[in-house]
Amino acid sequence: DLDPQGNCSTGIGISAAERERSSYDLLIDQARVSDCLMPTRIPNLDIVPATVDLSGAEVELVTVEDRTHRLRKVLAEDTGHEICLIDCPPSLGLLTLNALTAADSILVPLQCEFFALEGLSQLLQTVERVQERFNADLGILGIVLTMYDRRNRLTDQVADDVRSCLRDLVFESVIPRNVRLSEAPSHGLPALIYDHACPGSQAYMKLARELIGRLPERRKAA
User: Any alpha helices (H) in the chain, and if so which ranges?
Assistant: First the structure.
């Protein structure tokens, strides 16, 4: 979890009081991943949680020589996991830059709203710069449309515009607005555990199957 808000950590059931070490320690102190991991109630899923300390990490990293490669270095030493998912903050600062430099590919959630299109354009430009300067192997695994509401004409317009411009990059699976999805984080549970039968959970399972199909062969076995 690389977002100072720590929503990913909270949503998976890790309270703020339980987070003794975090992704801040990875970036600033270059701590080992194994020393910062916490188990979750989901089999085979561990998490390096986020804390509010991350809010000041970007300021602390400004004067560090290898500030864009800090996360990449510590993740390269972790041999205990096949796949690492990095939850990024909703900004394009040093935290996100570290994630893009460390990643093989990115998965872009896109709200079906007009202003989200502007943010997507900025993100794609940033990805190109990262490819040129820091991580030539970085690719876009796909773009997933979220908070989709069939009753809203603007939602359909945004979805159509994105698909017409980015074509195969956009996943067929769409995540709808769903009350049960909104409720799940307040219970400290992923939606699939909170209510696996709700439309939102079913949409995420469909997305997971589609996403696995796009992974490189060496990752699918995981």
Answer: 7-11, 23-28, 33-36, 57-61, 70-76, 94-102, 114-133, 153-166, 179-183, 191-194, 199-214, 217-220
Q: Could you give the CA distance from residue 172 to residue 168 in angstroms, rounded to a whole number?
A: 9
CATH topology of domain 1-103: Rossmann fold (3.40.50)
Q: What is the mean pLDDT of residues 117-131?
A: 86
Q: Name the residue among 79, 95, 22, 29 with its Cα closest to residue 14.
A: 22
CB neighbourhood size of 175 (10 A): 24
Cα(111)–Cα(2) distance, rounded to whole angstroms?
A: 20
Residue ranges covered by each domain of the chain: 1-103
pLDDT score for 99 = 94
Residue-level pLDDT at 217? 58
Confidence of residue 49 (pLDDT cuts 50, 70, 90): very high
Predicted structure pTM score: 0.87
